[in-house]
Amino acid sequence: MSRKLSEEEYNRQRLVRMKHWLSGEKDLYLDNVEVVLDGECEPDKRKLESYEHDLDEMKTRTYDTEHNRVYRFFQRFYKMAAVLCCVALVFILIMEVSYLPPIGSASNPASNEVAAKYIEDGLQDTGAVNIVTGMILDYRAFDTFGESNVLFIATCTVLILMRNDKKKGKGSAEEEERRDSHYEPKKDAILQMGARILVPIIMLFGIYIILNGHLSPGGGFSGGAIIGAGLILYLNAFGFEKTERFFTEKTYKVVSFGSLLFYCLAKSYSFYTGAHHLESGIPLGTPGAIISSGLILPLNICVGLVVACTMYAFFALFRKGGF
Amino acid sequence: MIVVEWLQFIIGIGFLLTGLGVFVVQVFGVFKFDYVLNRMHAAAMGDTLGIGVSLVGLIILSGWNFTSLKMALIIVFLWNASPVSSHLIARLEAITNPRLERHCEVKEGVTEHVWDENQKEIIRTQKAEEEE
Predict the structure, then answer these.
(1) What is the pLDDT of residue A114?
(2) pLDDT averages per 10-residue partition of chain A, 323 residues
(3) Which class for A132: exposed (0-12), middle (13-18), buried (19 or more C-beta within 10 A)?
């Protein structure tokens, strides 16, 4: 037998109340906890003075090394113990080092068939002179894809926490930023001159490192970090008005999504063809040339873009709550 | 030829040791001084002179090749970047510390030019007498 519940009765049910509590509509502490508001606090001058006097007295008595024996003992003991701990640690570490396997020995656990395979066939398989890049962007490309996604997710998390959407009025992003950096030197002529000289060099160097990732030490992560640092320097020297002309939230979205999507599609394609022994149609080129080694160069560029955007986005979000 | 090699080695090692000496002085100064401007002075010494002399020593040891050029570029970069950052720290300290005259001689107070949101110039002055 069923009957219709009135709304009042329905609301009194335990499950409904729990649902309300979970969704945050009901505050358990509202009307249940007594709150006593503090009156206006007036500092008692005499008490404050006596307190400060006591504090000074306490400090002078505690740190009086000539008369306070306990403190003197503690100071000596502290120094002795510090030296003893350091010496013991150094001794333990040196003992440990002497037990490590010798460098380059054939029986080391690190020199197994995996490393041998990378070193022997790396150049032939990937076309990259730099074996490390060939490893992280060809053999273990999905791992690197996960790393790029970790950066993107980290930016999303910071965005959730630090975002400030208010455009105008009190508490808006601009005003908060101005209040935060009230004492910071703004439009500093020396910094601007330094940035004018250094930023192009930093950017060029970062691009060089990204583009040469498969030929020399470097790659997307380090080059992207350098470009991000250059962007941050530019932002510090010239302010948000200048950077927002070329880097906004929309730029970040497009560049990050585009890079990750291209990475995912390109690598999925090459893994699919590789797993089925199909012809992938991507030429490896001559090793050593700048345009060679198949997908590694575009993937390096993608990773570099994601890293640079992430660095800049972190800085802008922590500084202003948006960009 | 062996004389040139020995000369190169000795001069390079001499420069390197000089640079290391400057670094030792820098570390000592950074931990010895209490006030930020004094410590910055010590730190900047290592950042410019110490690293410059050390890298010159390395360039001489390495000889005339591409690595030397890279190291020379590192010197140029550091000599551009380090004074600018020191300048910014010193400026922030001079603006924000209300008791600046306790640590160094301030004759007419610190004057600072800033611009508000309408690009209007405001001159902030911090006089020594105002503070106490």
Answers:
(1) 83
(2) 76 81 72 69 82 88 78 89 96 91 78 82 82 86 89 90 78 76 76 90 93 87 94 90 87 92 90 81 79 85 93 89 75
(3) middle
Taking the alpha carbons at both ends of chain B, their separation in whole angstroms is: 71
Two tokens at A72?
């003197």
- Residues B18-37 have pLDDT tens digits of 999 999 999 999 998 888 88
- Identify the DSSP state of B14: H
- Reported as a single tens digit per residue, the pLDDT across B89-115 is 888 888 777 777 777 777 766 666 655
Residue B43 contacts residue B83 (beta carbons within 8 Å): no
In the numeric block, the tokens 């009042």 are attached to A8
User: Look-up: residue for tokens 């996960």?
Assistant: A146
The H-assigned helical ranges of chain A are: 7-12, 14-23, 45-62, 69-99, 113-126, 131-134, 141-162, 173-180, 189-211, 220-238, 240-243, 249-275, 296-320
Q: How many CB atoms lie within 10 A of CB B27?
A: 14
**Cα A93 to chain center, whole Å?**
31
User: B112 to chain A: nearest residue by CA?
Assistant: A185
CA distance B85 to A120: 47
* Chain B CB contacts of A191 below 8 Å: 84, 87-88
How far is residue A213 CA from its own chain's centroid? 22
Average pLDDT for chain B: 82
Q: Which amino acid is at B89?
A: I
CA-nearest residue of chain B to A177? B117
Reduce the DSSP state of residue A48 to 3 states and report it: helix
C-beta neighbour count of A217 within 10 angstroms: 11
Please give the pLDDT value at position A105: 79
Cβ count near A250 (within 10 Å): 8
**A178 contacts in chain B (CB < 8 Å):** 117
**ipTM surpasses cut 0.85:** no
How many Cβ atoms are within 10 Å of A149's Cβ, its own excluded? 14
Cβ-defined contact of B84 to A186 (cutoff 8 Å): no
